[in-house]
Amino acid sequence: MKGGSSGSISDSANGEASGNANPVDHIRLTPDLIALAQGGACVILGAREADGRPVVGIGVGARVDAESRIRVFLDRRPNERLLAAIESGSGVAVTFTRAVDHASFQVKAESAKTARADPNDFPEVGRQCVVARDELNELGLPPQVAAAFGSFNPTSVVVVELTPAAAFMQTPGPGAGSPVRT
């Protein structure tokens, strides 16, 4: 399997109880979930516009740091409504799905911020796009469709930065929708 983790996606994350002297207000993703998020996954973001209507967008890659803060990379033009909702203070949900086996999880954050992309991230975003394109080709999508999903324009890439407050398994099956255990 290209770009995927060799193991299964677990349903646990490392977190701290909120009763500690220094409460942790976010969850920590497990290595297998981080690998999925950074492994060429399909990335879908959701938010709410000021009038409450949902708005969605498509990312081209993601990076997760040691504290489980997530930076999602996306093209500004097709995602302008989503970015406006986030900049207006909407909460955000991000779903990561590996195309070849539908392994999925979703994170939610009460808020997020937008930022400029760091050109030092572009080689990693490019790698993730190649993995996504190759997996979609393996599934039989026409090459031009897979290429569209597996590409990005560095001049229009922006970043949505968030710290997940909750995570849920989304892989189809009996555990779908269950919270990632902390």
Main beta-sheet strand count, sense and barrel state:
8 strands, antiparallel
Provide the number of structural domains.
1
Q: Please estimate the helix content.
A: 10-25%
Total strands: the figure is 8
Assign an overall shape.
globular
How confident is the prediction overall: mean pLDDT?
Answer: 86
CATH architectural name: Roll
| Largest sheet strand order | 6-7-3-2-1-4-5-8
Q: Give the name of the CATH superfamily.
A: Electron Transport, Fmn-binding Protein, Chain A
Which fold name is given in CATH as the topology? Answer: Pnp Oxidase, Chain A
Written description of the protein model:
The structure is a single chain. With 182 residues, the protein is α+β, with helices and mostly antiparallel strands. It has a single domain, classed as Pnp Oxidase, Chain A (Roll). It has 4 helices and 8 strands. The protein has an 8-stranded antiparallel beta sheet with strand order 6-7-3-2-1-4-5-8. The longest helix has 17 residues, at 122-138. Mean pLDDT is 86; it is low at 1-24.
Explain briefly what this protein structure is:
The chain has four helices and eight strands, in the order αβββαβββααββ. With 182 residues, the protein is α+β, with helices and mostly antiparallel strands.
